[in-house]
Design a protein that fits this description.
Blueprint (H helix, E strand, L loop, with lengths): L6 H8 L3 H8 L7 H13 L6 H8 L4 E6 L5 H14 L5 E6 L4 H13 L4 E4 L9 H8 L4 E4 L10 E4 L1 H14 L5 E5 L5 H16 L9 E3 L7 H12 L7 E4 L2 H13 L9 E5 L13 E4 L2 H17 L9 E4 L2 E3 L2
Parallel strand pairs: 1-2, 1-3, 3-4, 4-5, 5-11, 6-7, 6-8, 8-9, 9-10
Antiparallel strand pairs: 10-12
Helix pairs in contact: 1-2, 5-12, 8-9, 10-11
Length: 336
């Protein structure tokens, strides 16, 4: 059976104290370069690896962070996770990823599990069902560091990173108007989600700027953000059954955008002959679709990086943190 080497083993073999071995491997200034060289070369020769459990007990840290997202398969979230990992692993932290599948109950269970695993902090994008954040407020009050990204809450004062959703929605809607469309519908996720509120505002402002009246009947909500195909199909059918059918639609979500194209195909609704469409999507799959979809892209990778940097700053701070920032990242209209 393989038995890993310990600091005591190295100290015994080389005739140094365990504290000297530990300081040399941590590259502290108290140990001479010659001694460091001897110790490091020997540690490398015997393939020594630090014990992460012992380290975490000593530092009172698990060196791990929990990530809560709706769905890893969603292109936007997979890109954000890549950004999170690019920072976390370089800083010596492990990343534990959980999915809510847009369920409030699953979000609560996942967060309780991560907290019980003693993660050092949480990166959270709320589920479409989540309107009550008391499960998070309780942990935050107990001192667990957390940073929200993409879907945020105003109930908890901490760092937040979002895209400029209002600007993106404005540009997507204005693009349709400039193409000559006047009856523009809006398909979105849960009404209470921060991204839904901001994107609806952008949609309304674009209509107002171009003197097109806002029609409540043209706004349809999918409570699970396109997680269930039937929700999207029902919303589209309701729009197409209106006396004055929309001639275009702005879709406010990555999964919703792809589901919307599938619904149109299955209902034999031709794009752009029957209806035009713009959406929020980071998926490169759209380039392969015929017709393709003009969309708003979010800097998902950068958002993941910034959120992680913010979280690690809180985790590693020697003093309580009271100054928090809400960072808004620019979006871009990707015309296809």
């Amino acid at each position: 059976m393989f038995v890993p080497s310990t600091l005591k083993d190295i100290a015994s073999a080389l005739g140094y104290s365990t504290s000297t071995i530990s300081r040399a491997l941590r590259d502290t200034y108290e140990i001479s370069p010659e001694t460091k060289k001897i110790i490091r070369e020997y540690a490398q020769k015997i393939n020594y690896r630090p014990n992460p459990i012992a380290q975490s007990l000593k530092e009172r840290r698990s060196k791990s962070i929990g990530v809560i997202v709706a769905e890893v398969a969603n292109h936007y979230f997979s890109q954000a996770i890549n950004g999170i990992e690019s920072i976390a692993y370089d800083r010596g932290y492990h990343v534990i990823i959980t999915q809510t599948h847009e369920s409030y109950e699953r979000e609560k269970i996942n967060i309780q599990h991560l907290a019980s695993r003693s993660v050092d902090g949480l990166l959270i994008s709320l589920s479409a069902e989540t309107s009550d954040t008391s499960h998070l407020q309780d942990l935050h009050q107990k001192g667990l560091p957390m940073v929200f990204f993409d879907r945020v809450t105003e109930d908890i004062i901490t760092h937040k990173v979002i895209a400029d959703n209002e600007k993106g929605a404005f540009e997507a809607t204005a693009h349709l108007i400039q193409k000559g469309y006047k009856r523009i519908a809006h398909l979105t996720s849960s009404a209470h989600l921060s991204i839904s509120i901001e994107r609806l505002d952008g949609y309304k402002k674009a209509l107002a700027k171009h003197h097109i009246p806002f029609e409540e009947a043209y706004v349809k909500y999918c409570p699970h953000g396109g997680m269930f195909y039937q929700e999207t199909e029902n919303a589209i059918k309701e729009l197409m059954n209106l006396r004055e059918k929309p001639d275009a639609i702005f879709v406010a979500g990555d999964r919703l955008s792809i589901d919307c194209l599938m619904v149109f195909k299955n209902l034999n609704i031709k794009i752009p002959e029957d209806i035009a469409i713009t959406g929020f999507s980071n998926s490169d799959v759209l380039d392969l679709m015929n017709p393709s979809l003009t969309s708003i892209r979010q800097p998902a990778f950068e958002m993941g990086q910034i959120a992680t940097q913010m979280l690690l700053k809180v985790i590693e701070s020697k003093y309580p943190v009271y100054d928090f920032e809400k960072k808004i990242l620019d979006t871009s209209l990707f015309v296809r």
